[in-house]
Amino acid sequence: MKIKIGIVDDHTLVLESLIMLVNNLSNFEVTLHATDGKDLLQKLERQHDYPDILLVDVLMPYMEGSEVISTVKKSYPSIRLVALSVLNDSLNALKMIKAGCCAYLSKNINALELKLALTEIWSKGYYNSQLIDIENGALMNESTPLTDRELEFLELACSDLNYQQIAKKMFLSIKTIDGYRANLFHKFQVKSRTGLILEAIKRKLITVN
């Protein structure tokens, strides 16, 4: 039985390309597609067999991606929600994660990574595309302790503050903040602030509201 995928994107060419890409993957099929949030909600109301995973564009007319995500999460809690974007900034990622996403994928994703992402989202309920690829080594053990200051920085990094504002709030220089960032990137084996946020949530070090 194939895993059911839904896709929401207001760009027809992108939508059609994604439908074709997913349908060419073994074990997956697109059972619902929509051009915006309103179109999606209308189609969900008429359906009895909902998608298992829903890919939602971040920037759309009528309803922003985060609004679509939070609405679907409340009404259809069984659907696993994924942000899909050309943007790769942490603030948009955080906004979508707070709304209820379990992954943040680039629209430039290739077939191999898309299959990996959908498989992990289905089996684990989570996927972080911002991890560093490591040939010989394991990720930080989830029980690895962080210092109080690292935890404080981590909490602020998962807010909408930029690094300069975080430095001011922690009464530290931007150079020291850069050091905390580099240390946590290394400990979590991630390559971006987005990856750090996703890993912190996964490890239950941070709760987003």
Notes on the structure:
The protein is of the alpha/beta class and 209 residues long. The protein folds into two domains: 3-136, 3-Layer(aba) Sandwich (Rossmann fold); 148-203, Winged helix-like DNA-binding domain superfamily/Winged helix DNA-binding domain (Arc Repressor Mutant, subunit A), CATH 1.10.10.10. It is built from nine helices and five strands. Strands 2-1-3-4-5 form a five-stranded parallel sheet, sandwiched between helices. Strand 4, helix 4 and strand 5 (104-106) form a beta-alpha-beta unit. Helix 3 (65-75) runs parallel beside helix 4, helix 4 packs parallel to helix 9 and helix 7 crosses helix 8. The longest helix has 15 residues, at 174-188. The protein is elongated. The two termini are 35 Å apart.
Write the layout of secondary structure elements.
Layout: E1 3-8, H1 12-23, E2 28-34, H2 37-46, E3 53-57, H3 65-75, E4 80-85, H4 90-99, E5 104-106, H5 111-124, H6 148-157, H7 163-169, H8 174-188, H9 193-202
Parallel strand pairs: 1-2, 1-3, 3-4, 4-5
Helix pairs in contact: 3-4, 4-9, 7-8
Modified residues (4-aspartylphosphate): 57
InterPro entries: CheY-like_superfamily, NreC/VraR/RcsB-like_REC, Sig_transdc_resp-reg_C-effctor, Sig_transdc_resp-reg_receiver, Tscrpt_reg_LuxR_C, WalR-like
Domain HTH luxR-type: 139-204
